[in-house]
Amino acid sequence: MLLDTLLAVRQRSETLIAPLEPEDLMLQGMADASPPKWHLGHTNWFFDTFVLQPHAAGHRACDPLWSYQFNSYYDAIGARHPRPQRGLLSRPAIGAVLAWRQRVDAGLEALLQDPPEGVDALVQLGLQHEQQHQELLLMDLLDGFNRQPSEPVYNPEAELTLTLEEEQWLACPGGLTEIGHQGERFHFDNETPRHRVWLEPFELSSSLVSNAGYAGFIADGGYQRPELWMSEGWTLVQQHQWQAPRYWRENNHEFTLAGRRRRDPQAPVRHLSWFEADAYARWSGARLPTEAEWEHALGLHGAAMQHAHRVLWQWTASAYSPYPGFRPVEGAIGEYNGKFMSSQMVLRGSSWLTPPGHERNSYRNFFPPASRWMAAGIRLAR
Amino acid sequence: MLLDTLLAVRQRSETLIAPLEPEDLMLQGMADASPPKWHLGHTNWFFDTFVLQPHAAGHRACDPLWSYQFNSYYDAIGARHPRPQRGLLSRPAIGAVLAWRQRVDAGLEALLQDPPEGVDALVQLGLQHEQQHQELLLMDLLDGFNRQPSEPVYNPEAELTLTLEEEQWLACPGGLTEIGHQGERFHFDNETPRHRVWLEPFELSSSLVSNAGYAGFIADGGYQRPELWMSEGWTLVQQHQWQAPRYWRENNHEFTLAGRRRRDPQAPVRHLSWFEADAYARWSGARLPTEAEWEHALGLHGAAMQHAHRVLWQWTASAYSPYPGFRPVEGAIGEYNGKFMSSQMVLRGSSWLTPPGHERNSYRNFFPPASRWMAAGIRLAR
Amino acid sequence: MLLDTLLAVRQRSETLIAPLEPEDLMLQGMADASPPKWHLGHTNWFFDTFVLQPHAAGHRACDPLWSYQFNSYYDAIGARHPRPQRGLLSRPAIGAVLAWRQRVDAGLEALLQDPPEGVDALVQLGLQHEQQHQELLLMDLLDGFNRQPSEPVYNPEAELTLTLEEEQWLACPGGLTEIGHQGERFHFDNETPRHRVWLEPFELSSSLVSNAGYAGFIADGGYQRPELWMSEGWTLVQQHQWQAPRYWRENNHEFTLAGRRRRDPQAPVRHLSWFEADAYARWSGARLPTEAEWEHALGLHGAAMQHAHRVLWQWTASAYSPYPGFRPVEGAIGEYNGKFMSSQMVLRGSSWLTPPGHERNSYRNFFPPASRWMAAGIRLAR
Amino acid sequence: MLLDTLLAVRQRSETLIAPLEPEDLMLQGMADASPPKWHLGHTNWFFDTFVLQPHAAGHRACDPLWSYQFNSYYDAIGARHPRPQRGLLSRPAIGAVLAWRQRVDAGLEALLQDPPEGVDALVQLGLQHEQQHQELLLMDLLDGFNRQPSEPVYNPEAELTLTLEEEQWLACPGGLTEIGHQGERFHFDNETPRHRVWLEPFELSSSLVSNAGYAGFIADGGYQRPELWMSEGWTLVQQHQWQAPRYWRENNHEFTLAGRRRRDPQAPVRHLSWFEADAYARWSGARLPTEAEWEHALGLHGAAMQHAHRVLWQWTASAYSPYPGFRPVEGAIGEYNGKFMSSQMVLRGSSWLTPPGHERNSYRNFFPPASRWMAAGIRLAR
């Protein structure tokens, strides 16, 4: 059954690139993003390196050159191609990458007939890793398409459609509570250990902030009033001339994976930085929730806290730090989450780009506060 | 009595520049630092702008041009000279700045004969602000002198001399505790509100990490082993070729305000980034304390927690965030602390450069994790 | 007959990309280079814009968006996509570009049945322009392939093979002479007007500098001796750590369009900057010729001045300036050569990458003195 | 008599800084400029290094550290402090520099009682070098003052006052002529060898372009019309938002060493780049003269060619290249002129900032075409 899931996830990666032109496979719009072909190669390298090479007798490791090209950031594995130059890797071409994926699939299939101790967990990790890259691939593609005058359409059906209902304030009494992953289901190391946290009473919005709500902030001079911003954010506003969320276009349009579209005022605002979310919250007389508040409220209120999942990642007020007693996994695979615990903010929930089944209440996503290309939105607290 | 304190603090600023050559007054070693003359002008501008202009009838405000030059980051006051170019402000010359300081001193003296409501608090804030800049002036000067081949000596007596004793681990049982400022004494807004925090049991070192201890980290390949570092820190290590704390020199020397000196192995290591402190802690099998742990342990153990003050600021594991329920002061003066609550880490304690009397157990100092020019050191937790 | 030539040149552009993978079509290794697909689109845009739109009744102009993307630097035509971001233009895909080329070919074929006044000259210019881009395409591709760990082979047959003979010094008595284009054959505006120049007596080498000769310069500390270099060049040597020509690899290899190859000591040295050519000349006790000397000597000595064409472009000592009385062509098409007459040096001759028939004795090629990716070599004078 | 001249020139350097505040001595407005104190130290270092150390028995060489700090670009002498960081050298303070100058003056005075062979020429070179730096000091100071909101006045008398007369076109028949230094008087190596040049007939303006003339260019959209500009210049116009000469201010004012002043329409336009001079010339239907034309016309027309000297340096159309047969002086001193013969343009004449007696008809001044802070203006040819 793990095998079935695995193969379905693997297949989905290839399905995602089906609508693309070959040239799109090379597209890297900025240093933070990666080309689609690279995502396909890198997720394959992950299985080749961490599952097949150590555990599948007779597996022929990929070319060291490919390992150099498709390693993302695992220093323990060796040197790697500089990230900002992934868009220069025209070779191997997609055909060779897909053939490599087939070899790895075959190897995994054979290995999972009778998996040695620990392999199931590694395969599960590789599978979750590939799901993460499926979302990254779509985010990165949106960024790359957004930079082109021709405004390409990835998929007319790829769009989020949601009309927000009126906001309620969900009361949370606070007190001594617990957050973090619980139980046997898969989770990342950064969600543990589950631990106690003291919370003061607070309220959380039942909903997300809408495009109309955010337009009110803009109309009220939101991008011209330094008192609403963190100093660092205000510098960015001026430096990059931010005046609206990243993909907003003139005349009430926005750029999406379905191309240029009319912006729905009642849809949730998205693709904005933590600084914008924070400034909006201050303007509205509220604030962003901490990640503990977010997780606790979801446990308390369940479905009444709408859109916790599968709509937009939600910025929190929490810097991404280790939970008390956190220990990363041993070995190279431990470079997964722990080494990014500086200068980033936590996002909670999941988005419409997140592969179905990948979401989790204790999930800790993280990005630098200036990042805008993720599918991120705003939920308020007070 | 406030007046006496005020005048003593004001006088101290001018005493600090007595050993300098006129050219030193213009010295700005990097964009993050400011020239000594600018610090003297800026602290004066603070009193002129926030105390005398609104409250001293008949006070003649300083030239708007000077306000433009000596405003640091108060957007509500108006435009300002770009920080990286403070070192280009040869005019007004020091004589004119000192004359301005005398006028402001006279104005404050008159005003404090019969201070209107609220003025005492503003003067107190201006006084504390000037003390902060006294430490900044010395930090910045050390940076500027460090960049010169001639290795100037600021003051042969200006050095920290301390021999560390053997480290003890102070046990702290944790539980529900409180941190934040309490009582009527002066404090900054970011130290409030006092609030409850849940702590798991931990131990804190009684002492700071020594030069010898840190040399052990270096000798063990600390700067060559990516697994010890946050990813962001490792990038900096490679980019800037960091190989030791900022002011270490070859042959067991270091650069100080007393010039080039032999480094004492038993003195505390200093002038290193949060990334280096964090990597050292990981290497030693410990970690940095959170700011709540630091403050709680000091309350619990008192003097047994040595060197909490007047030696070195101590990096914590805590990102600089608002306390639950934090509200900045109203008005321009509220731009003091709150707007820097992103991408910085908290340091606790105080340093040998901190003006006597300025220290406080609830004091939250903050700097970006890559900063190295402050008088910062390491205290471990586990 | 012009039509035959035209169609042959047009066909050749498409033949040049036949060995490429689709991903290679997007490859832009640096801001100075362009992707292969862009070269095919741009040369087509040239005909569409300057020939068909003004002269072919009923011609449907290309999409303004495509004009924006494929305009190189013609300000009179309108805004254009920033050059450093040509590698982000995944759309239009190659299929659409090739279909556009077919439409333009058909339009040109129809137009040339009975060409209006002036059209022949414009078509001739477009044809020469496309030939220039054929060489650029190969230069740029070599740069892009050179940046990849996988060391792609473009064409095993694409390499220059030449063994240099022993150098002779060709004597030239100087005096009042003439340079510049003469006659009715096609030429660029910058080769005119033909004009008088006074030359002092000089000698020119019959041959080019070899890899072995250049290796002698390196072995003699050429890249470590500032006295051999222009100050600007010496700064570049240190900044970029230049230690050899651009495509030299360790163990006497070099990277070429035929992949990594053993370097032939008797082949001409190539792919080096003007600064390297100038430093080499100084080291060898000679100098670079002026462009007037080069052109005059070729007229005087003919074939005895070997390798004037079809081997390597040859750096001269001449800055690229207008000839006395130079007038660029009227209109947008006049932005071709004249506006680049600053901060560049003239190269004379042609290279093995130059399309056959494109070379001319009065041809003035030009590049900034720091450029290294062209097929440039060294001929000495004294 | 050489000694008298020497001492007068040396004294003049110190007189130039008399109106300055001590802080001004540290002022370095940009990487291309140097602080006044540095100019005083560097010119002294030149005599110490090239005259006294090799020729004055018993001379105590300056501290190697000072040599490191005050060496400008003489690689043969050793390493040096990075130019962009000269503004960080607060030490040695001016007092120590002036004392050093006195020691050097005394040494030179003793040496010149009975100068060994070759010393007179070296002293002459040092003297001319110091004169060059006197002009640089004033140019650099103007740049540094220009960056300050307080608009300092260096010297109310320091300004150029000149009302241009109506322009005449001076006819020059051309033919075979000679340029370059002739005779025994002092000259720099780059003015030789005198050599033959062929000139076509041309006309040269008797005068310089006025502020009013240049204002006409601006009013006619000069800074908005790409067809008037070199491509490289047009990029700079857009990048730096050039809209007028460097020191023009709003409301018909300009910034000068005498502070902010009303701009005289009939005074010559100044402080503009070669790109602006070239664009203006194109707009006016003329061109810039070559340096050979300039020098030849001055020989032919003498005083009828007004303002050749002591008003403004005049941009020419000539790239700065070696004269045929040029040989730099042997040794470190030969790094004076020859190594800058790339990517710069020649200016002829002299300016009102040039020390009296320093000017010469064959003088070749040179700056990169983007430089604007020199005292440069425009003379047209056609």
> What is the mean predicted local confidence, pLDDT of chain A?
96
| N-to-C CA distance of chain A | 44 Å
CATH architecture label name of the largest domain in chain A: Alpha-Beta Complex
Low-confidence blocks of residues of chain A:
none
Rounded to an integer in angstroms, the radius of gyration calculated over CA atoms of chain A is 21 Å
For the largest beta-sheet of chain A, the strand count, sense and barrel status come to: 4 strands, mixed
Most extensive protein-chain contact, per-chain counts: A-B, 34 and 34 residues
- Which fold name corresponds to the CATH topology of the largest domain in chain A? paralog of FGE (formylglycine-generating enzyme)
Instruction: Identify the CATH class of the largest domain in chain A.
Output: Alpha Beta
Task: Choose one word for the global shape of chain A.
Answer: globular
Q: Write out the strand line-up for the largest beta sheet of chain A, numbering strands in chain order.
A: 10-9-8-11
Number of domains of chain A: 2
The CATH superfamily label of the largest domain in chain A reads paralog of FGE (formylglycine-generating enzyme)
Secondary structure: number of strands of chain A: 11
Helix share bin of chain A: 25-40%
Give the strand content of chain A: 5-15%
The SS-based structural class of chain A is alpha+beta
What is the count of helical runs of chain A? Answer: 9
What multimeric state do the chains show?
homotetramer
List the secondary-structure elements of chain A in sequence, H or E.
HHHHHEEEEHHEEEHHEEEE
